[in-house]
Amino acid sequence: MAGRGPAIHEILSEQAWMAGPSPAMNEYNGSMLLSWPSLYRALTGAAAPLVRRYLERRGRRGKEDPARLDERLGVAGAARPTGKLVWVHAASVGEAQSVLALVDRMLVERPGIEVLLTTGTVASARLVADRLPPGARHQFVPVDLPQAVAGFLDHWRPDLAIWVESELWPNLLLATSGRGVPMLLANGRLSVRSLARWRAVPGLAKPLLDCFALCLAQDEVQAARFRELGARAVASIGDLKAGAALLAAKPDALAELREEVGARSVWLAASTHPGEEEIVAAAHRRIAQAHPGLLTIVVPRHPVRGEGLAEALRASGLRVARRAAGETNAPGTEIYLADTLGELGLFFRLTGIAFIGGSLVAKGGHNPFEAARLDCAILHGPDMANCAAMAAALDTAGASLTVADADELAHAVSRLLGDPAERDARARAAAQAAAAGSGAVDAVLERFAPWLDALAPKTIQPVSVLRSEPAPVLPPRRRAVSGADARP
């Protein structure tokens, strides 16, 4: 029903979908006995007694923060700041990463406001813990129960709400709008599957989209989908992820890894999902035949999978070092499993060749511009639906290669390792394509200005005041003895 929220939201939402259309709810013939929003509210309200136990079970599996379960039930974990409060909701890691630059700019340019950022996953909470600027704080979004939503809104009393991408929870949206809070949608996106589900219940889709005074979609395809469902004010101004700040990296950690890698051939499989690690492992074996001593770095999208992944890779005969366990990346290591959070910037800088995960297993891919901004040639699978415009821009620029399986992945990586000039050319093209899309944050802020102006006047700040990380200065490359592109 929404984007990639946690399972508790999905279960609650599915109750409404399973109810199916009812003649007693025909909003077109004037005989409505119960509206879709009312039905959803009744179903989710009935689920309330079971939710706490379900959250506790999720906590034991690492999918909730046991110390912060009350936040999920609408009990605040911090005091509301005085003054005007902008509430920004981002579902998970990708959305949270994309919105940090927007939050930063709002706070710098409008000192009179404060920001509340909510997310729904443990990984996203950990990601933003050390990255939110002064004036911003994080809370977990409440589950979509009427009581939890009411408690959340009673405490925080937001003056403006900005939702990111595709998390459209009925109780939370309707209750927020019902309190007179202006609502804006940034980086709107609906997958083909989500669009089909919303089409089945126009009596629910239209009231939810009516909550938004403005919907800014990622691209014109997405804008058309929102218009079809009845959104009243829709525009396409670019993908907010294209304007996200550079991923950070600790200089000492980067220097240490470069020393460990030395002149070995190295490449990265970033943000991988179940099923992709097996493909990457098969590709590694093929690449290593042409590039002895090859090091493949795997960064799973969800680090909690690290222990099981390490066991599976070792069982297949590969020598694995696991970063989260503090295992040394020794010279004989074949797979370096970087099962940590918030270190992708480190590994993009280290490797220079990046496969973007989620693209070989129908997950829609992840943001390729993160790698493009950090001197990487880009590889990805056929499914980049989540970042279609960015993938198209890279393809047009000759910056990326599309692969369909382990053989094609192995061939592409081996080709780039063996031809540093091609790798460098594709990385330069990728950086240029990413730079061309970097104005998305400016465009979003310009369109949101009427609502932000109502809260606090804009104070013009010099560029140096902004807290975004500057463009990296990368050291000259030292080529591997075999001719492969390695980074010292």
Plain-language structure description:
This protein is of the alpha/beta class and 488 residues long. It has two domains: 7-236, Rossmann fold (3-Layer(aba) Sandwich), CATH 3.40.50.11720; 251-435, Rossmann fold, CATH 3.40.50.2000. It has helices spanning 7-19, 36-46, 48-60, 69-72, 93-109, 122-129, 146-156, 170-178, 192-200, 202-209, 220-228, 251-261, 276-290, 306-315, 344-351, 369-372, 388-396, 406-418, 420-436, 440-453, and strands spanning 84-89, 113-119, 136-140, 160-164, 183-188, 212-217, 234-236, 266-272, 295-300, 320-322, 335-337, 353-356, 377-380, 400-402. Residues 1-33, 462-474 and 476-488 have low confidence and may be disordered.
- What is the domain total for the residues? 2
Q: If strands are numbered along the chain, what order do they take across the biggest sheet? A: 3-2-1-4-5-6-7
State the major sheet. 7 strands, parallel
CATH level 4 superfamily of the largest domain = 3-Deoxy-D-manno-octulosonic-acid transferase, N-terminal domain
- What is the tally of beta strands? 14
Spell out the blueprint of helices and strands:
Layout: H1 7-19, H2 36-46, H3 48-60, H4 69-72, E1 84-89, H5 93-109, E2 113-119, H6 122-129, E3 136-140, H7 146-156, E4 160-164, H8 170-178, E5 183-188, H9 192-200, H10 202-209, E6 212-217, H11 220-228, E7 234-236, H12 251-261, E8 266-272, H13 276-290, E9 295-300, H14 306-315, E10 320-322, E11 335-337, H15 344-351, E12 353-356, H16 369-372, E13 377-380, H17 388-396, E14 400-402, H18 406-418, H19 420-436, H20 440-453
Parallel strand pairs: 1-2, 1-4, 2-3, 4-5, 5-6, 6-7, 8-9, 8-12, 9-11, 10-11, 12-13, 13-14
Helix pairs in contact: 1-2, 5-6, 7-8, 12-15, 13-18
